[in-house]
Amino acid sequence: MKDKVVLAYSGGLDTSIIIKWLVEERDLDVIAFAAELGQGKELEAIEEKALKTGASKCYVKDLREEFVRDYVFPMIQANTIYEGTYLLGTAIARPLIAKKQIEIAQKENAAYVSHGATGKGNDQVRFELGYFALQPDIKVIAPWRDWEFKSRTDLINYAQKHGIEIPVTKEKPYSSDRNLLHISFEGGILEDPWDGPPEDMFLLSVSPEKAPDQPTIIEIEFEKGIPVALDGKKLSAAEMLEALNKLGGENGIGRVDMVENRFVGMKSRGVYETPGGTILLPAHRAIESLTLDREVMHLKDELMPKIAKLIYNGFWFSPEMELLKQTVIESQKNVNGTVRLKLYKGNVIVEGRKSDSSLYDENIATFEEDTVYDQKDAEGFIKLNALRLKVHKKITGK
Fold first, then answer.
1. DSSP state, 72?
2. Residues 6 or more apart from 267 whose CB is under 8 A from it?
3. Which of 10, 14, 152, 205 is catalytic?
4. pLDDT in tens, 77-90
5. What CATH number does residue 118 fall under?
6. Is residue 168 part of a domain?
7. Same domain, 182 and 155
8. CA angle 199-203-206, nearest 5°?
């Protein structure tokens, strides 16, 4: 009986070739696993395609609600963004895929798991750290680190030679990864960071120039830092992100073109569309501005880059990440309320926010006469904070 391997299968170029390679070169029984995370039409007939290419079985699991509820929204609660720009749409999907892959491997008594990530990328690290955190004795096959192919052009030629259907052509030689949070594009014609991406590449959004001339006004309600209603209508996690993706895309929101620092040591250029996430981030910060204590907010802001780095580098299932997630959850207990936003030609503009948990007191903040705040108190406050500055100047002269 052949050993079994569970392959994270997308139906794309790399994993389509990998099925045949694992069967023919490694003599393994390949069980394909396709995670439905919001790819849309990309998963049509994927089971048929996997079996046709050589897999003995194909699992297709709809993980959209779990993905947004347990991975995307906790990231939003932390206001997570990598290197000031990237909303981590690819990175945050990998731990969930790895988790389900290990579950299938255990169910099928498979000795191996495999993925299509390249030896130059971050995803190989994210997948494999997830595997080993969840099942330390699992064996991993990473074809891009082992096989004879040197480029995606080699894969395209191999696919054409063996009659394997693939979504990539030599005319559009960039790879993409799509889920409910975003779609990413990299490689091929995008490898020169001076060249702008072609307009016909984008799938989720219109360009800001082609967005409507009239703004769209929306209201998002939050409970414990989680978006739960849009314009007064309660929505599930996946429904919320789908609705915001549509609204954001229609208004030219969410396009990012960046050069990022990969965990493996190189810089890479990526182009991303993240309409819904780009709306949620300022909305969440707006409701936190009313409801979070100053020092809690500042501490969260200090922790955010660490959380982003852990997610980007693949440490979702690490002890330190678990501690930080619990800290964020604790901070969100009173982050309740509604934010009003204007969506206009690529911009997300906060127009209002309200909360029954608000720490904002108009009677204290007012510039009019009040009986709460004695402005003379500020003098002593300033003198005490200036004391060390005075001493430093006297002693050092600098």
1. I
2. 259, 260, 261
3. 14
4. 999 999 999 999 99
5. 3.40.50.620
6. yes
7. no
8. 60
Cα(161)–Cα(166) distance, integer angstroms: 12
Catalytic residue among 123, 126, 176, 178: 123
Q: Are 132 and 353 in contact (CB under 8 A)?
A: no
Q: Is 14 marked active-site?
A: yes
- Active-site annotation holder among 94, 152, 255, 269: 94
Residue with tokens 């009659």: 163
Compute the average pLDDT of residues 166-177. Answer: 67
312 CB neighbour count, 10 Å cutoff: 23
Looking at the structure of the chain, the number of domains it has is 2
Q: What is the DSSP string of 17-36?
A: HHHHHHHHTS--EEEEEEEE
The pTM (predicted TM-score) of the whole model is 0.93
Q: For residue range 172-186, what is the model confidence (pLDDT) as tens digits?
A: 557 788 999 999 998
Kindly state the average pLDDT of the residues 318-332: 98
- Cα–Cα distance for residue pair 61/340, rounded to 1 Å: 35
Query: 207 catalytic, yes or no?
Result: no
pLDDT confidence tier of residue 204, bands split at 50, 70 and 90: very high
Instruction: Say whether pLDDT at 267 is over 70.
Output: yes
- Spell out the residues 6+ positions from residue 358 whose beta carbon is closer than 8 angstroms to its own: 290, 291, 337
**H/E segment holding residue 229:** strand 226-230
Cα–Cα distance measured from residue 130 to residue 136, given in angstroms and rounded to the nearest whole number: 10
Which entry of 175, 176, 205, 268 is annotated as an active-site residue? 175
Asked whether residue 375 is domain-assigned, the answer is: no
Say if residue 167 is in the same domain as residue 184: no
Is 175 designated active site?
yes
Residue 60 near residue 48 (C-beta atoms within 8 A):
no
Q: The domain containing residue 329 runs over which residues?
A: 178-354
- Look at residue 366 in the predicted model and tell me its pLDDT: 65
Residue 328 and residue 205 in one domain: yes
Whether 235 and 229 have beta carbons less than 8 Å apart is answered as yes
Each residue's pLDDT tens digit, 94-140: 999 999 999 999 999 999 999 999 898 899 999 999 999 999 999 99
Do 263 and 300 share a structural domain? Answer: yes
